[in-house]
Amino acid sequence: MSTRIRNVTVLGAGVLGSQIAFQSAFKGFAVVSYDINADALEAATKRYDTLVTTYTEEVPDARDGAAAAALDRITLTSDLAEAAENADLIIEAIPEVLALKREMYTKLAALAPPKTIFATNSSTLLPSDLKDATGRPDRFLALHFANRVWQFNTAEIMGTADTDPKVFAEVVEFAKAIGMVPIALHKEKAGYVLNSLLVPFLNAAAGLAFGGYADPPDVDSTWRIATGAPLGPFQMLDIIGLNTPYNIMVHGDAESQQIAAWLKENYIDKGKLGLAAGEGFYTYK
Ligand code: NAD
């Protein structure tokens, strides 16, 4: 491995935290997976068991027991001091609530050794919103993964003006070492690269259907045929699940709020939440 990072701690073992921890363990790192209490750790254990199955089915290198072996490299704990004490890198994937994250960094600042790099997986907060709570702004940045990390393997890396370039470079190497394609942002941008592109794109598609200009399947056909993309925006919305775009749009401008209301009335309130629900803009078997 070309990275000096060996011991990785992931805070929060929810949807993304469990994936980041598992992917790191799968690539050979010793991982501590922290969550708040016994119930959360029990839920995490189930997530990890599901990930063993998913990796075995979907990741070619994970056959022959490699996914099960990854699980042996993960230690679960609800003791934050224990989670922090040996970490070279702590990746924080706790709920997207500013006060909660700041409280976590304040605690970590006292518990982690000086060598430890802190990285946030936050999707919507900027690292600048958190850096003063870390007590080490030079060793703090954002490392942002996409859901289904083993398949959609981008890692967007975004520091603040205070982030030490050597720390940034070290995290780029770590991202490569766990099989991600590192995407370096040169300065802070809400939404990073991916969501800066995706959110306006999906909003524009929803606006076409909401405004009665074209039906979702025709919008999708246009995008697929004219650009060669494998999926249209409504297919993507079904995969993401309609609650997430709804929650973004409901806080947007007047038109976004109207689109949010349309999504709620015509889809969400009817249980058409997307692929996972069996129906969204399309019906799935
Ligand atoms: P989640 O709700 O699935 O998981 C959050 C986990 O944090 C839970 O296991 C919860 O028990 C735990 N938790 C709650 N309070 C905590 C605390 N005080 N300290 C430690 N752990 C605590 O959330 P998620 O979807 O995994 O999102 C986590 C972070 O990852 C967020 O910042 C989110 O923006 C980001 N993210 C999510 C996605 C996604 O698609 N879900 C994608 C990229 C980034």
UniProtKB/TrEMBL annotation:
<dbReference type="InterPro" id="IPR022694">
    <property type="entry name" value="3-OHacyl-CoA_DH"/>
</dbReference>
<comment type="pathway">
    <text>Lipid metabolism; butanoate metabolism.</text>
</comment>
<dbReference type="InterPro" id="IPR006176">
    <property type="entry name" value="3-OHacyl-CoA_DH_NAD-bd"/>
</dbReference>
<dbReference type="GO" id="GO:0070403">
    <property type="term" value="F:NAD+ binding"/>
</dbReference>
<dbReference type="Pfam" id="PF02737">
    <property type="entry name" value="3HCDH_N"/>
</dbReference>
<dbReference type="GO" id="GO:0006635">
    <property type="term" value="P:fatty acid beta-oxidation"/>
</dbReference>
<keyword id="KW-0560">Oxidoreductase</keyword>
<dbReference type="InterPro" id="IPR013328">
    <property type="entry name" value="6PGD_dom2"/>
</dbReference>
<dbReference type="InterPro" id="IPR006108">
    <property type="entry name" value="3HC_DH_C"/>
</dbReference>
<dbReference type="Pfam" id="PF00725">
    <property type="entry name" value="3HCDH"/>
</dbReference>
<protein>
    <submittedName>
        <fullName>3-hydroxyacyl-CoA dehydrogenase</fullName>
        <ecNumber>1.1.1.35</ecNumber>
    </submittedName>
</protein>
<keyword id="KW-0443">Lipid metabolism</keyword>
<keyword id="KW-0520">NAD</keyword>
<feature type="domain" description="3-hydroxyacyl-CoA dehydrogenase NAD binding">
    <location>
        <begin position="7"/>
        <end position="187"/>
    </location>
</feature>
<dbReference type="InterPro" id="IPR036291">
    <property type="entry name" value="NAD(P)-bd_dom_sf"/>
</dbReference>
<comment type="pathway">
    <text>Lipid metabolism; fatty acid beta-oxidation.</text>
</comment>
<dbReference type="InterPro" id="IPR008927">
    <property type="entry name" value="6-PGluconate_DH-like_C_sf"/>
</dbReference>
<dbReference type="InterPro" id="IPR052242">
    <property type="entry name" value="Mito_3-hydroxyacyl-CoA_DH"/>
</dbReference>
<keyword id="KW-0276">Fatty acid metabolism</keyword>
<feature type="domain" description="3-hydroxyacyl-CoA dehydrogenase C-terminal">
    <location>
        <begin position="191"/>
        <end position="284"/>
    </location>
</feature>
<feature type="site" description="Important for catalytic activity">
    <location>
        <position position="144"/>
    </location>
</feature>
<dbReference type="GO" id="GO:0003857">
    <property type="term" value="F:(3S)-3-hydroxyacyl-CoA dehydrogenase (NAD+) activity"/>
</dbReference>
